[in-house]
Amino acid sequence: MMRLTAIGWWVVAAALAMLSEPAVLACTACFGQSDSSMAKGMNMGIFALLLVITSVLCGIAGFFMYLAKRSSELESAHGAQSFSSNQNNA
Fold it and tell me: In whole angstroms, what is the distance from residue 34 CA to residue 46 CA?
């Protein structure tokens, strides 16, 4: 019964969203003046978020590149060490 009530609220919210006027749903960049200060501020916000996301993704990529480099260095050092110990035993 509780789930039915929650679904009912979602249906009411979706119906209200579909029946509202289109101008209410759009921002100034999509509907109206695209050169207003609100649209410029929104564009700067989008660019700021893109900058943050890009820097985080570059940091993650750099970390994995560091791990790959360190892993290959350890493998080559371990391979050279085991190769020299095999020659000494022979």
Answer: 15
* Contact between residue 56 and residue 48 where contact means Cβ atoms under 8 Å apart: no
Question: Whole-angstrom Cα distance, residue 79 to residue 71?
Answer: 12
pTM of the model: 0.52
Residues 14-60: pLDDT tens digits? Answer: 887 777 766 666 665 566 667 778 778 888 999 999 999 999 999 99
Residue where the block lists tokens 């410029």: 40
Question: How far apart (Å, rounded) are the C-alpha atoms in residues 65 and 15?
Answer: 49
Rg (alpha carbons) of the chain, rounded to whole number: 29
Degrees, nearest 5: CA angle 85-87-89: 70
What is the end-to-end Cα distance of the chain in Å, rounded?
A: 79
